Structure to design on (305 residues):
């Protein structure tokens, strides 16, 4: 009996070893970069990492500043690009990043990205304090409706997202969820593979709850207070909010009334902007975005630079 148990354990270890090799060589799961929190409370990635997206068709890169993508060769005539997972853009190769595509349309300028999934508007403003040290001509902050509401702790307290308490004016920086467990999970690829498969199976097998349709309300008072705080505490003269397609018109109207610099993207309901299985932009979508942004920058901000 003891001999049988030893054989079972040995066989299991061999299967785990072989399975780990297969998952790694076939890139059955994405490599996930490890995060850290800097001295200012901002979550960044540990510098100088790289890895493969699922399927292994392309690699992502974390530069020495702790942000995804390639750093510019020069910081002269600099334009900074701040955003969440849309700008982080692990789903596409490096040459489909906004910084690269904008450089193609505006070759006399240089572009620096600072992006991470989960970045709220208020965290983007905090990140801009660091990028402002490089004295950019313009700072582009890519936003959608959620980036505003998720910034406000008074609406919904989210511990893993940087938020502001509008009553106290204090900023609560996002905390990393289960960092030790995630480090093990992402490092042990076979475990991560089965974790993904198991989670998907649970979702597919679960009975879907009946959806209750609720009327979407624009929390104008909260958002207005958020924008008042931002205008009072951050330099907005050189910052441009780049709104995703189909952003709430009331939100855009409010920003216009406050005389903020804005660009409103228009996908013309072109479904090829996004992946079939995901709302993030494809390479085609990113190219369309960069075309609209570069044209707007030239027409409104850069002609006299």
């Amino acid at each position: 009996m003891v001999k049988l148990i030893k054989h079972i354990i040995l066989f299991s270890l061999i299967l785990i070893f072989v399975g780990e090799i297969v998952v790694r060589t076939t890139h059955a799961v994405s490599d996930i970069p490890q995060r850290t929190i800097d001295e200012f409370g901002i979550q960044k990635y540990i510098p100088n990492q790289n890895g493969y997206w699922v399927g292994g068709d392309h690699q992502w890169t974390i530069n020495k500043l702790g942000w995804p993508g390639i750093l510019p060769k020069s910081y002269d005539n600099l334009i900074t690009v701040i955003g969440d997972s849309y700008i982080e853009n692990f789903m596409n190769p490096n040459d489909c990043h906004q910084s690269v595509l904008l450089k193609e349309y505006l070759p006399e300028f240089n572009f620096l990205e600072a992006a991470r999934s989960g970045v709220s508007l208020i965290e983007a403003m905090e990140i801009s304090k660091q990028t402002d040290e490089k004295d950019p001509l313009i700072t582009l902050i890519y936003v959608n409706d959620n980036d505003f509401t998720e910034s406000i702790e008074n609406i919904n307290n989210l511990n893993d997202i940087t938020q502001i308490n509008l009553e106290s004016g204090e900023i609560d920086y996002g905390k990393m969820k289960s960092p030790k467990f995630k480090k093990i999970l992402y490092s042990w690829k076979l475990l991560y593979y089965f974790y993904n498969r198991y989670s998907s199976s649970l979702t597919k097998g679960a009975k879907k709850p009946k959806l209750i349709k609720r009327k979407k309300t624009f929390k104008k008072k909260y958002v207005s207070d958020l924008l008042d705080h931002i205008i009072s505490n951050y330099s907005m003269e050189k910052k441009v909010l780049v709104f995703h397609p189909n952003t709430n018109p009331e939100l855009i109207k409010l920003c216009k009334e406050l005389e903020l610099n804005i660009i409103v993207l228009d996908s013309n309901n072109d479904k090829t902007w996004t992946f079939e299985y995901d709302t993030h932009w494809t390479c085609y979508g990113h190219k369309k975005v960069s075309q609209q942004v570069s044209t707007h920058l030239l027409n409104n901000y850069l002609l006299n630079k």
About this structure: The CA atoms of residues 35 and 45 lie 4 Å apart. Residues 2-26 form the longest helix (25 residues).
